[in-house]
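tool_call: predict_structure(chain=1)
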Amino acid sequence: MSEIVSCAEHAPDDGGVRGAGGTRGAHSWWVPRLSGGVPEARHRVQEAMRAWGEPAERIEAAALIVTELVTNAVQHTSTRRIRCRLLRSADGVRICVWNRGRARIPSPASPGDSAGLPVGQVPAAADLAGDDALDQLSEDGRGLLLVDALAARWGTRAALAGRLVWADL
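tool_result:
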């Protein structure tokens, strides 16, 4: 998205939304690295995008993406706060989640792990002797697959003594 400013650039932390009716806009805020930070981030994304007049489908996709990215930051970092940015331009919307530290970014689970298994093929509890079978039924590890499915593109990089993950809609 050439028209969208880099996530690493400074944006005000006032929570204010600028822009409406197709104009540029930015929304930036911090959430605590606690489970309560996840719904706060989701709510702020929904609120900002409604104010911008974005379609409901895009708002829903953005809410799911920010939920997954902030959840990963909560689970895989030791930072106290997580920075979220929402940027809008004529090209679309970019969601950015940044945390301080050098946490490992989790890899997306393989699409074939257990997603889409017909109910009859899910192993019985007695058949779950090995860790691999348990991992295949895990509810964890699917977030980045969801981000990949919903975003036009996404990525991650080291940024400002931390880790930045972004997704474009």
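agent: Strands lie at 25-32, 81-89, 92-100, 153-159, 162-168. Proceeding to next step.
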